[in-house]
Amino acid sequence: MRDICLIGAPSNLGLRPLRPGHVPGTWRAPEALNEAGLVEALTPAAIADLARPAYSAEPEPGTRLRNGHAIRRFNLELADAVANALGKGEWPLVIGGDCSVLLGALAAARRSGPVALVHVDGHSDFRHPGNYDVNAMLGSAAGMDLALVTGRGEPLLTEWPGIAGPLVADEAVVQIGERNSRDPDFAWADINATAITRIDVFAARQLGAVGMVETTRAALARAGLRYWLHLDVDVLDQTVMPAVDSPGSPGIDPDDLVATLSPLAMDQRCIGMDVTIFDPDLDPSGEMARLLVSLLGRIVGPGSA
């Protein structure tokens, strides 16, 4: 058993609006999951909630990233909260929010040395200035988090106080569940030239949970580091989890997701986890919130060890 510190990170800063005037609803996820029974399912030793940051869809001076300065401020606050939990010997579980919260989580983890990353996501999140025209559109950090944490992108979100180099090295990353890289028009094909270990959704379904865990553990053993676990819930098929901004198919089966993530989360080398992209605005009945609570209870709850 471990002492979980449940950290609410109600950010939507890294997402684009889906239509004029739209404000993404991921900021409501911590509250919605708590209302669906997350605290009861996990029985955390501590709870910390960050204040919701203000969202803007407009460009701002000094950056081509939407809400870039606000993302940095929010993630510095989140890094302090995660570092505080780690300093107390607690296991931080960050409930986002959009995927940009990974930046603050890793910035905290890096304060005590290098880390590896298990990045479970239906997308590579590898957009960066080397593979798109930054002058043609604003960048959305939620589609860039893996690129940013590996040091690709504006210094505003790649350089962090007291940390030399990227938050995580390519060879210390395992990416699981991405579904687009076999498409002929895949926009971020340069990820194929990196040292990132990649298990796309098609390979994941062939390997099954046991094979995914074995492959991931082998890569982590080569890195020889503590690691952080990132879960974007759009890795589930859109028929199972439609309450995300970019749903898609195919996805990892919920039972396979639990069977993969539970042993990885329970490993003593895993120092924390974040969960992102659930949008309660797309879940009016609360059914998806209850499903996520059930899955998280199975992955990191008291009976998951």
Describe this structure in words.
The structure is a single chain. The chain has 305 residues and is of the alpha/beta class. It has one domain: Arginase, Chain A (3-Layer(aba) Sandwich). The protein is built from nine helices and eight strands. An eight-stranded parallel sheet has the order 2-1-3-8-7-4-5-6, sandwiched between helices. The longest helix is centred in the C-terminal third of the chain and has 23 residues, at 201-223.
Number of domains: 1
CATH class: Alpha Beta
CATH-defined fold name:
Arginase, Chain A
Shape category: globular
What are the segments in which pLDDT stays under 50 over at least 5 consecutive residues? none
Provide a count of the helices: 9
CATH architecture: 3-Layer(aba) Sandwich
Order of helices and strands: EHHEHEHEHHEEHEHEH
Distance between the termini: 7 Å
Strand percentage lies at 5-15%
How large, in whole angstroms, is the Cα Rg?
A: 17 Å
Helix proportion: 25-40%
For the sheet with most strands, the description reads: 8 strands, parallel
- Total strand count, please? 8
Given helix and strand content, the structural type is alpha/beta
